[in-house]
Every structure is written in C-alpha cells, then in structure tokens.
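EI: anyone free to look at a 114-residue chain?
SC: sure, send it
EI:
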Amino acid sequence: MAKAARAVGSDAFKRYHDRLFRAYFTENQDITDDQVLHSLWQELELPAEAFDRRDDPAFAEAVFAEHNQSIEQGATGAPAIHMEGGFGAIMGAQPVETYRLWFQRMIDRRASPG
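SC: here you go
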C-alpha cells in the first residue's frame, strides 16, 4: 500500500507510511485488512483512483525483492534497518543512541583503510 502512496508522491508516501505505523502499533488495527487500508487512504484524502494501484504486480514484485534483500542482510524481524554498505541489520525499536553508535562505526570504518 505504501508503494501505491509513493506513486502519488513523496508527501503522500510519508503521510500514509506514518499513518500505517500508527494504525498498527498504536491503534492495534489490522493493516492487512483491505477495509482498514482504504479507510486510512480516505482519511488522508489521497486520490481515490490511486488506491487501486495497490494491485499493480510491479508493487508486489518490489515488496518481495526488498523482503528477500532484508533476509539476505540478516533481518529476522520488523522493523529492521540496514545501511547501504553497512554490516547486518538493526532490528526492533531501538534508542537513538544505538543508531548514533552504528553510524559512527560506519564513519570510522570508512575513514580507516583496510
């Protein structure tokens, strides 16, 4: 669904993505339910005709490709974060300090050859 929102525009993607996370993690809504997805779409006043793009096979292919890439990079849960050129993945909700340390390790690693 977020990919259909991205096709509308980057702002639509961000708003829908954030709304999906809030619906799932805060409101305990079933974001696999088509009625829930449609309701969230309407709530954000996204173009009605764009909602049906969720069935575009290209979106499903992209999601499966990203999923497989995540598994190859060591992700075993959600949410999972992988930094391009990084090592492994960080999974689950993490404190900001975890990300700071991870970024610093990447910076240090790139600064010292070998």
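EI: The mean pLDDT is 87.
SC: 👍
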